[in-house]
Predict the 3D structure of the following.
Amino acid sequence: MAVSISRKLAASKETAPQSMHAILTMDSPRLRDYLNFARTTQSISKDGNANEGIKNHGQPRNHVAEGLILEHAERADTDFLVYTGNFCGYCRALKNLLNTKELTFTEHNFDEHPPEMRIAVVQATGHRTVPVVFDLRGEQTMFIGGFDETKRYLK
C-alpha cells in the first residue's frame, strides 16, 4: 500500500540545522535537541497544504524521519528513491527490476551511513527490512514498500 509523505516546515530557521546530513553527524545531545525541536514543526505537502503525513499504523509521526526522506527525495533527480543494504539479494533484484523497466533510482546504502539513517527510515515507514522504496514520479513522495510490493506496484 502506497502512502504519502509530508514535508516539515520549520517554525524557526535559526534553530533548525541546515541539512539532515548535519543532524546525522551531530553528537547525541544535539540530536536529542533537534528531535525535540522537530516535534513542534508543522507538516505541509509539496503544494504547501497541511496534511497528515505518513500514516504509520497509528504510530506517532516522526518529523525528523520524514524530513530525512523528503530531503533525499528532493535531491534525487530520479524516478525512485531506494534504501538498501550490503549482501541483500532483494536489493539486487530491485535494482535489476528498475533497470529492466528503464526507471532511474537514487540509492542510499544503510551500511555506508550512520545507523541513525536506518532508524529514521524505519520510524517514518514502519518497514524494517531492505530495500525500502519510494516513488518520486508523482506530486508527492510515495512509500511503496520492499521488493515484492514494488514488483506488484510496477505491473
In short: The first strand starts at residue 3 and ends at 4. The chain has one domain: 3-153. Residues 3-153 form a domain with the Glutaredoxin fold (CATH 3.40.30.10).
